[in-house]
Structure to design on (298 residues):
């Protein structure tokens, strides 16, 4: 797989997949803002901040589900984020076994950090 | 309760070094996790896991941080478990902060003419999703299409926006490999 480009379409797909319209003001900050690079969408500091390299490719992506939201799956476009090292999915309920809801080709990503964390 | 099976993870995310499953409703630790040979940090407190940890987990060569509920889990001496207060919910302290590089302005290049040109090279699963007007992909595409600067922004930014540009070759293997 050869991918050199950035991730706006993919990030926006994530936003709609995980009901970004209901995110809090902090986690939803700047998402879909045309004037802000997608790396700067969301939390601005800390563990849940998105991270990109100098070319604007995502190295770390963080998504937080809202209470009551049930994830039905991960958009397959995630495998196009070919530099992704860290994927953090906080507080997401899933509609089934999580392994079945992940695109099988996720394994192509150079992931070294995977958060599948549910706060209770 | 969230049930997790690790078949997929142990099979393919073999370079994973940090795995946080705190407060994830986990009921058991499958022995397969012992095949995650790159694992350095495993945080599994706040779950319903009881009993002894699998031997395979204790012998992972790189595992340095293993945080468990010692009240529920029998941790062999070889495991060097870190006992975690089950009321503690913040796993961040053991995860090193990732440096945030600044985004360099890439060569501005020439403006890209249209949006549709960037649909070329999109993988089939995205194109298929676009045919459903309520799919996340269709929403994302609609959002992109509404960008006020389309037609006047430089090529590199168009590529950033669409990510799946026509200059990209994608070879998706049919067989899952690690």
């Amino acid at each position: 797989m050869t991918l050199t480009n950035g991730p706006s379409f993919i990030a926006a797909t994530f936003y709609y997949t995980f009901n970004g319209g209901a995110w809090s003001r902090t986690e939803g900050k700047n998402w879909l803002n045309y004037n802000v690079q997608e790396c700067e969408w969301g939390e601005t500091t800390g563990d849940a901040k998105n991270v990109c390299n100098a070319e604007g490719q995502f190295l770390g992506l963080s998504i937080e589900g809202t209470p009551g939201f049930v994830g039905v799956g991960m958009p397959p476009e995630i495998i196009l984020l070919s530099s992704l090292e860290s994927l953090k999915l906080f507080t997401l309920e899933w509609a089934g076994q999580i392994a079945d809801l992940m695109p099988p080709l996720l394994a192509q990503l150079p992931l070294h950090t995977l958060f599948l964390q549910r706060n209770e | 309760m969230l049930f997790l099976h690790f078949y997929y993870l142990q099979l393919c995310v073999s370079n994973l070094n940090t795995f946080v499953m705190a407060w994830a409703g986990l009921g058991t630790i499958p022995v397969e996790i012992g095949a995650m040979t790159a694992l350095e940090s495993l945080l599994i407190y706040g779950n319903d896991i009881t009993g002894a940890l699998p031997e395979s987990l204790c012998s992972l060569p790189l595992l340095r941080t293993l945080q468990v509920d010692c009240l529920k889990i029998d941790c062999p001496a070889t495991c060097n478990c870190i006992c975690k207060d089950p009321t503690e919910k913040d796993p961040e302290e053991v995860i090193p902060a990732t440096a945030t590089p600044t985004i360099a302005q890439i060569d501005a290049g020439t403006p890209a003419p249209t949006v549709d040109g960037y649909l070329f090279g999109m993988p089939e699963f995205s194109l298929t999703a676009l045919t459903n007007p309520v799919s996340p992909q269709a929403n994302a595409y609609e959002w992109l299409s509404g960008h006020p600067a389309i037609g006047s922004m430089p090529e590199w930014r168009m590529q950033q926006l669409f990510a799946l540009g026509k200059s990209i070759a994608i070879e998706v293997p049919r067989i899952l490999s690690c």
